[in-house]
Design brief:
Blueprint: E1 3-7, E2 10-12, E3 18-25, E4 34-39, E5 46-51, E6 57-59, E7 67-72, E8 77-82, E9 91-97, E10 100-101, E11 105-109
Parallel strand pairs: 2-11
Antiparallel strand pairs: 1-3, 3-8, 4-5, 4-9, 5-6, 7-8, 9-10, 9-11
């Protein structure tokens, strides 16, 4: 059974940082492509970043240069380091592998 469990969300001021984690079970995060998505209120879910088994990373234009996706092999976890956060980054952030989704973690950027 595949489980993806996100954590690390919270309330942060503009310009601040957060590090999201996605702990996986039932899969190996370094085999295949792992992704982060987000969904803001009233908007469709959108892709944020992804990392392949070959460690190729890709980012949405809106987060390029501010967010970094990485994997921790020992903990079978995917991270999303988010720096210089903006109010428009406010959303529920989801971890994804193929058809599998986590429950999401709320990120709120507000002063």
């Amino acid at each position: 059974q595949v489980q993806l469990v996100e954590s690390g969300g919270g309330l942060v001021q503009p310009g601040g940082s957060l590090r999201l984690s996605c702990a996986a079970s039932g899969i190996i995060v370094t085999i295949g492509t792992m992704g982060w998505y987000r969904q803001a209120p009233g908007k469709q879910r959108e892709w944020v970043a992804s990392i392949t088994s070959g460690n190729t990373v890709n980012y949405a234009d809106a987060v390029k240069g501010r967010f970094t996706i990485s994997t921790d092999n020992a903990k079978n976890t995917v991270h999303l380091q988010m720096n210089n956060l903006k109010p428009e980054d406010t959303a529920v952030y989801y971890c994804n592998r193929w058809i599998y989704w986590g429950q999401g973690t709320q990120v709120t950027v507000s002063s």
